[in-house]
Design goal:
Length: 211
């Protein structure tokens, strides 16, 4: 059972109303925020992909099949993990779903505790991905705040050049290079040169010389 104060959103998509309501009730009692969709098209229209969570998806539905919904989510670059929960599972269908990135493929007779375990794992993984994405955006924003000269100096530092060589290349005195280098360290929150190199690699830093 989920004990987290923010357990994530579980999107249930199933054209069987009885299954939809029973599964939704079970997951709410287990601590999850649940959104139920009888129509896969309604689900796609109302999806909030930035929320941590997962999708519990039926395989066979009239409007769109589960694999078709999975394909649309993939083309929309939605990263929510998908768990197939179906009464009509086949080995080829499960293999295809897993190859396309599904978290798991379960039958509707699966024990409740197993379903909870799979959902908790999926939601936790998605929340971790969301955190990593936010951290990356914040880090790239710090790099974006560097001045053009700081970017030039940083590029040379990352290439392993000494301060005096950088000064000669840029037509500046060495003291100015040291000042720009220190400013880069402060703005980026780097504690050492190896830390600076690591941050640049994570952020995908590429120098863009000013016009």
């Amino acid at each position: 059972m989920s004990n987290s104060s923010n357990p994530g959103t579980v999107y249930l998509v199933d054209d069987d109303v009885s299954v939809l309501r029973a599964t939704g009730r079970f997951l709410r009692l287990s601590g999850f925020h649940v959104r139920e969709f009888y129509s896969p098209l309604d689900f796609l229209a109302e999806l909030l992909p930035d929320e941590p969570g997962c999708v519990v998806l039926d395989l066979q539905m009239p409007e769109l099949s589960g694999p078709e919904v999975q394909d649309r989510l993939r083309r929309m670059a939605v990263t929510l993990p998908i768990i197939f929960l179906t009464g009509h599972g086949t080995i080829p269908a499960s293999v295809r779903a897993m190859r396309l990135g599904a978290e798991d493929f379960l039958t509707k007779t699966v024990p409740g505790e197993q379903l909870l375990e799979v959902i908790q794992r999926a939601v936790a993984r998605h929340a971790a991905q969301q955190n990593q994405r936010r951290e990356l955006v914040a880090l790239q924003a710090r790099f974006a705040r560097l001045s053009p000269k700081e970017r030039r100096v940083l590029t040379s530092v990352l290439a392993g050049q000494l301060n005096k060589v950088i000064a000669l290349d840029l037509g500046l005195d060495e003291r100015t290079i040291k000042r720009h280098r220190a400013s880069c360290m402060t703005k980026l929150g780097a504690q050492s040169l190896p830390d600076l190199v690591r941050l640049a690699q994570v952020a995908g830093f590429r120098d863009q010389p000013p016009p």
